[in-house]
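[User] Once you have settled down, look closely at the record that follows, and write a paragraph about the fold.
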Amino acid sequence: MDGIFSNRLVMLPLFILLGVVVGSFLNVCIDRLPERQSLFRPRSHCPVCQHRLAISDLIPLFSYLWLRRRCRYCGAPIPQRLFWVELVTALLFAFLWCSYGPGVQLGILLAYGCLFIVIFVIDLERGLILNRLVYPAALLTLALVPLRPELTIVNSLIGGGIGLALLLLPVIVFRGGIGWGDVKMAGLIGLATGSPVVFTAIISAIIVGGLIAGILLLLSVKKRGDTIPFGPFLCLGAMAGLLWGSTIYDWYIGLFS
């Protein structure tokens, strides 16, 4: 066991570096996908002065700090989100590598983690959950099922149906608060986690979302009637379900055994 952990520590800096680089690309996705722009053209540029950025301006994490959070060419502020997405992605890569080591499971969880980071930030900033992310991700999820011994196609489809139903009912009954993007996202989460773990993922999102919303109201950051995106909480619930869903579900059921 010590040898395995030591080998993972040796590779850890490489995975942190990989996570930072991937996080930089995720920022490109977050900026361009809602605008239906190419992810590769044009080259990165300042959105204010349109000056094309040099390689030294694009070093993840470092450039943000070195440039003191401002564009080298026009002095416009660089969004803090660029730094935080790169940092969070690096931490995610480090955590998953240390937890799972090399293997198919690591690759699948990294792919989901990157997907949910992009959905999280886009919904937080723009209030959108993009079909061009959710639909391809749903197809990819089904394609990956044979590589996941804990899941079957039937179980995945049942989970997807449960996820849709859990959020479809509030949309129909209350007509507000939760949008159709959230419903589709819940279906994707159900496909990814399967049944019964989908309950853990969705209920976790509802609980965390309710707590955060209550805190924001108490602190007067938000007022009654203000919209709070639910997609970020669904993303957190999805990762919780993928990582610890079975453990949480078994613990909860054990309380009533």
Observations:
- Residues 1-102 form one domain.
- The chain has a mean pLDDT of 90.
